[in-house]
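To start, one record:
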Amino acid sequence: MELPTRTPTLLAGTETALPLVSIVIPSYNHGRYLGAAIDSVLAQDYPRVELIVIDDGSTDNSPEVLAQYTGRVHWERQANQGQAATMNRGWLMSSGDILGFLSADDFLLPEVVSRSVRALQDDPGAALVYCDFNLVDPTSALVRRVRAPEATYFQMVTQFICAPGPGAFFRRSAFEKAGLWDLTLRQMGDYEYWLRLGMHGRLMRIPEVLAAFRVHPGSQTFGNAHRLLPEEPVDIIRRYFERPDVPDDIRAARNQALSTAYLISAQLHFRAGSYRRGLGALRRAFELKPGNLFSLRFTRIAFNAAFNRLGHRILWSVRGAASRSTGKGLGRGSGQK
């Protein structure tokens, strides 16, 4: 995809000695949360930020929300193409030395860009930095703090750990080597992309809460698994090991990585109600690496599959009842604009 060169719209400041940071917000039918996501970028304490918002054919009030930011950020609308294509378009449009993206239903805390730039400057061997984040509900009330895993690249592959969450930033030089997001993936494109990016530098954690991840009934993470999506983890790992540049120590652990991918696949099958396929995935995981079925990871996956979405619904119901009984709105988490 080739796009015309354009002059970046900076949010604040003219300190050209600092690297330009480009943030892409892809949005589809998240008009309820989109303004908060944009405001959280506008509130950054770093002076050189380029914000690109691309509405992917939304049918809700997103155009009206975006119109309020005309002249303050660069925004566009397009026919629906999907999240991966939308982010690829935004990154190709961008001019920054450091890149990032923000889901339209999440938000950033004001220091995340400055802290991320400083971390990348301090460690030339790092390709990407990521932070801890708060899990918030539809009203932005805090659910819990999430301590992002601090995994080695070997662990990311073999244990299927997607360490970066909201508030991740990476070097353009690594982006140019890793390439664009895979358009064929619908649920775990971020994990597959971080695996490719990790070939070109370390992924480094900042042990601070600098972003928020929102769970709500309309989010892709919370929603029911599509009947084809449970196969994605296995497809990602299989294709990864077809690469000629996979490190030798990781290539030797191929069965372990595939076994873990089948565990994730089983979890998604169970969520989708495909119990027979889920049991088949568990059997394949056992055949590849018998010890995986007795691991803490297996216990967590089983518990998550059974209770994760139900638990969030119960929490929202309790909070909703409390709000109605008091006649007052619920408090908002820090960082909500």
Observations:
- The radius of gyration is 20 Å.
- The chain has twelve helices and nine strands.
- The first helix runs from residue 31 to 42.
- The CA atoms of residues 155 and 243 lie 18 Å apart.
